Amino acid sequence: MYFKSFFDEQLAHMSYLIGCQRTGEAIVIDPARNIQPYLNVAKKEGLNISAATETHIHADYLSGARELALHHGAKLYVSDEGDKDWKYEYVHQYEHEMLTEGSVFNIGNVYFEVIHTPGHTPESISFLLTDKGGGANEPMGIFTGDFLFVGDVGRPDLLEKAAGIKDTSESGARQMFESLRKVEKLSDFLQVWPAHGAGSACGKSLGAVPMSTLGYEKKFNWAFQIKEEGQFVEELLAGQPEPPKYFAQMKKLNKVGPELLRREETPKVSLAEAGNAAVADTRPAKDFAKGHAEGAINIQYNKTFTNWAGWLLSYDQDIVLIADPEQLADVKTSLQSIGLDQVTGYVDPKELGASLEQYQNVDASKAKELMEDDNYFVIDVRNQSEWDSGHIPGAHHMMLGNLTDKLDEIPKDKKIIAHCQSGARSAIGTSLLLKNGFKDVLNLDGGFSAWEEEGLPVKKD
C-alpha cells in the first residue's frame, strides 16, 4: 500500500492519496480543488487515480472530487447518509457509488469500510482502512474527516451559524456524542487521519500534530473524557470560533457541484482599469502602511490569506489583485481553493505610482496616552473568546470579519485606534476602515500582547 498526506497550511486542510501498488490504482480522500499535487505524486509513483471520496460535504474549501471525476475518470464514493437536504446533487453525472453505514469498497487490495459518524454534519462518514494486500485482516487506521481531530472533535454548529439551518447545533452535538460512543469501541492501535489540523475553524482546539492513534485520543482528547451527554453538549457548543462568512457558500457549492476550474491568464492592468472591482493588496502590512492605493484592502499573502479573503471578499464582485508577479499564480490558486475565481486583473506593486495613501502604527505606551483623550475611539477586532479573556478598558469589540457590518456604530467625528492580538488582523481592519471613509486611523503595533507586556490596564467582563 502507498500512503501520502497533503497539508494546505492556509486552510489547515489534510487530504490523502492511498494507492495499491500491486494494481496501480489510487484514491484521493477529501481532495482539495487544486488536484495537481495528487497527479504529480501519482505519476511519480506509477499510480492511476481511479477514485475519489469525501467524508462529508465540506464547508471550508471547494472539493476537487468533480475535477478528478471529469478530467481523470475517477469514480466518486460519497455519503448517502443524512436527510434529503444534504445529498450530493452532481454525482449522477459521473460514475459513482453512494455510501452508508457498513458499505465496503476497495481500491485494488486496499479496503475501506464506512462508519456513519454524524455530529459535525448529518452526512459525515469515516473510513476504516484495511491493507489486505499487505496481509492484514484488521484495519490499520481510520479517516475521520471533520468528525474526530487530534485533541478535538468537529463543531456541530456550522449548519446553523453558517448555512442558516435553525435548531441544528444541539442536535448535532448529541449526534457527536453518540458517534464518539460508537468509535471508542474500536481498537486502540488504529491510526487517526483527520481532515484538518491547528488553524481550522471546523473545531475550537485542534492539535498541530497531523495524526494520532485512537487509543491516545481516548486517553487525552477532552471529548472522550465526558461521559454525560448534557455536559458534553454544553462543553462542545461553548466557545466555538466565529465561522467565516464564506462557509455558507462552500457548503452550497460542494453540494450542487463546484464550478470546474478555468485556466486563464490574468491580465496586467492599471488601477484606473479596476473599475468597480474589489482591490486586494497582498503585500505585507508594513509596505501597505507606507503607501497604498486608496480604496484597496490589505490581505497579506501568508497562511491566513485564504481565511480572510473568504471573510472579506464578495463572490458577487470582480477582484483585482495587487501582487508580486512571481506570487500571482499562488495567490490565484489560494483564492480558487474557496471559489473566488473572479480575478480580472493584477497590478504590479512597483507600478502603484507616487500618489498613495498611508497610515501610521502606534506603540502601546503612546496609544495609552492618546486614549486619555475622548477624541479617540478604540476598536478591538479580535475573536469573541479573545475579548472575553481580557481587553483594553473602553475598547469596542468589532470582530474583524464583521467589522464592515458595524460601521454605523463608529463615530465619524473621532480618531480611531485599531488593535488585535499582535497587530496583523488590525492592519487588515485599518485598511477596511480607510476604504470606508475613516481616514484618521492608527494601528496598535504589537496589539493586545504589547499592551499586556507594558503592564497596562486590562478589563474582563
TrEMBL record:
Key word Hydrolase present: yes
Superkingdom of this protein's organism: Bacteria
Gene3D superfamilies recorded: Rhodanese-like domain, Ribonuclease Z/Hydroxyacylglutathione hydrolase-like
Domain Rhodanese: start-end pairs: 273-299, 372-460
Keywords: Hydrolase, Metal-binding
PROSITE patterns in UniProt: RHODANESE_3
Keyword Metal-binding part of the UniProt annotation: yes
BP GO terms, sorted: glutathione metabolic process; hydrogen sulfide metabolic process
SMART domains with a match to the protein in the record: Lactamase_B (SM00849), RHOD (SM00450)
Stored SUPFAM superfamilies: Metallo-hydrolase/oxidoreductase, Rhodanese/Cell cycle control phosphatase
Entry GO MF terms: hydrolase activity; metal ion binding; sulfur dioxygenase activity
Name this polypeptide is given: MBL fold metallo-hydrolase
Organism encoding this protein: Mesobacillus subterraneus
